[in-house]
Amino acid sequence: MTDASSQPLIQTPLHGLHRRHGAKLVPFAGYEMPLQYTGIIAEHLHTRDQASLFDVSHMGQAFIRGEDAAASLEKLVVGDLQGLSAGSVRYTLLTNEEGGIIDDLMVIQGGYYLVLVVNASRKEVDFAHIREHLAPDYDLEIWDDRALLALQGPMAAAIMARLAPASRHMMFMSMENLKIDDIRCGVTRSGYTGEDGYEITVPADDAEELAETLLAEPEVLPAGLGARDTLRLEAGLCLYGNDIDETTTPVEAGLSWTINKRRREDGGFPGDGVILRQLAEGPTRRRVGIWIDGKAVARAGNDITDGSGRPVGVLTSGGFGPSVGGPIGMGYVDVDHAAAETPVNVIVRGKPISAHVTKLPFVAHRYAK
Amino acid sequence: MAKMHFTNEHEWIRVDGDIGTVGITDYAQEQLGDVVFVELPEVGAQLEQGGEAGVVESVKAASEVYAPVTGEVVEVNEDLADAPDKVNGAAQTDGWFFKIKLSDPTQLDPMMDAAAYAKYVESLQ
Fold first, then answer.
1. I need a labelling partner for A335 at 20 to 30 A (CA). Which of A5, A193, B38, B52 fits?
2. For residue A328, what is the nearest residue in chain B, using CA coordinates?
3. Average pLDDT over chain A, rounded to whole?
4. Which residue does chain B place closest to A300, by CA atoms?
5. Å from A208 to nearest chain B CA?
6. Count of A–B CB contacts within 8 Å?
7. Facing B34 at nearest CB: one of A39, A296, A349
8. Number of domains observed in the structure of chain B
9. Distance (Å) from the C-alpha of residue B14 to the closest C-alpha of chain A?
10. Of the candidates A40, A295, A297, which has its C-beta nearest B33's C-beta?
11. Dihedral of CA A240/A283/A134/A71: which sign?
């Protein structure tokens, strides 16, 4: 995680809290972010066992006012936004004319407004793109004075019920405006760990108080970007820039589920020609999970070959999975090698390591039903 | 206990007779974070001072381990295969990587002692 730019790193509203809690801070997407507090493995396992608090304030948050904003924004994404009822959240993809993915994002339908949550590394690109193409009646208002916190883990629901009883009836991928400790929060039941959990937007000035309130709950410990990455890898979730980018399509990435029946029939999104053809005919490569035999850790960028050494793909994420207890990865392989259990090799430091293709996720999702 | 010598690359070597025990320093394991895999040289391998001797993988990244001296590998720490976290828990004792038969003990002379290494680490922070 290096940062080539000479710009000073941006600190989130929780920077002081990170320091107090002993975080190891690293540059990430232009921000100074906590990599870990006690250790990545301990934080990962605690998240799967109880609950962890993540600072994800580096992500881009924006607001579009207007009841029909969904119809305008929908022209830029593959997902069904018009069918999204007030108080619902959707994971969707901004695409380009070639069918590549500009970003993956969350869209929250607030009733008379939309909230967008995008990747830190993509917010400038996304927001410029949306502003350029959004109907002139709508204005994209960037929320750069807000923090975003994620409370993730099987105990998250019990903790939220204690602090904000109105959260009890929230379903997965729903949104409520709630008060926690008299702080007005926008809460979604969502996350990036494969566990149940919540993502909470608050004004920057309230962020530290809210974070300390959550950390004061007995089950909650802070967790950093290191654990966030190992958790999402085990959950089979894409990291933008690694597993998806402007050269990968939703179909290749295994994200066809984000395109509903109406949008498959009608198209009307950038790259619809390429994407609908791939849906009908199948892509030439697919994102798959890779189980690595042995203990050597494969990393993003490692080549994937067949038994005879012929290249069949490349790993786009790779690392040690603390809950599975070994090295795992995700990558793209040609469709002839994409079936589960297909044996392959991953080239680690010049040496072939035996591995096989597997279905994702590595660790079953435990979202609220 | 024999004196420890330290390299700029954060390896340590403790020499007893003509056999040196090699590992990475406590500072190095702290920087790496949770160690999940260590690739060790083969017994019998001839290593050159400064050449690659192995790889230590943490959750976040792989780092090369360099031979602090020239010589032949005479033993490797088999315990690390099942317990790589020993590198985190006991980097400068039970978490040793390999033993090497020194070809040229004078290679130790310019290396840092514990006090000099502590100062060096301080200068990096």
1. A193
2. B59
3. 96
4. B61
5. 27
6. 44
7. A39
8. 1
9. 27
10. A40
11. negative
Contact B34 A41 (CB under 8 A): yes
Domains A10-57+144-234 and A284-369 share a fold: no
Q: Which of A40, A296, A349 sits opposite B34 (nearest CB)?
A: A40
**String of DSSP letters for A302-320:** -EEE-TTS-EEEEEEEEEE
Residue-level pLDDT, tens digit, chain A, 369 residues = 444 556 799 999 999 999 999 999 999 999 999 999 999 999 999 999 999 999 999 999 999 998 789 999 999 999 999 999 999 999 999 999 999 999 999 999 999 999 999 999 999 999 999 999 999 989 999 999 999 999 999 999 999 999 999 999 999 999 999 999 999 999 999 999 999 999 999 999 999 999 999 999 999 999 999 999 999 999 999 999 999 999 999 999 999 999 999 999 999 999 999 999 999 999 999 999 999 999 999 999 999 999 999 999 999 999 999 999 999 999 999 999 999 999 999 999 999 999 999 999 999 999 987
A35/B60 CB distance under 8 A: yes
Predicted local confidence at residue A2, as pLDDT: 46
Cα-Cα-Cα-Cα dihedral sign, residues A80, A81, A85, A88:
positive
**B-chain residues near A1 (CB < 8 A):** 60
CB of B28 within 8 A of CB of B61?
no
ipTM for the whole complex: 0.89
To the question of domain A10-57+144-234 being in CATH 3.40.190.10, the answer is: no
Mutation target for A interface from B59, B64, B79, B82: give the one with most A CBs within 10 A: B59
Strand order in the sheet with A24-28: A10-11, A31-36, A24-28
Rounded-to-integer distance, Cα B16 and Cα B72, Å: 15
For the domain covering A284-369, report its CATH number: 2.40.30.110
Q: Is A263 helix (H, G, I), strand (E, B) or coil?
A: helix
What CATH number should be reported for the domain holding residue B108?
2.40.50.100
- Domain span including residue B91: 4-124
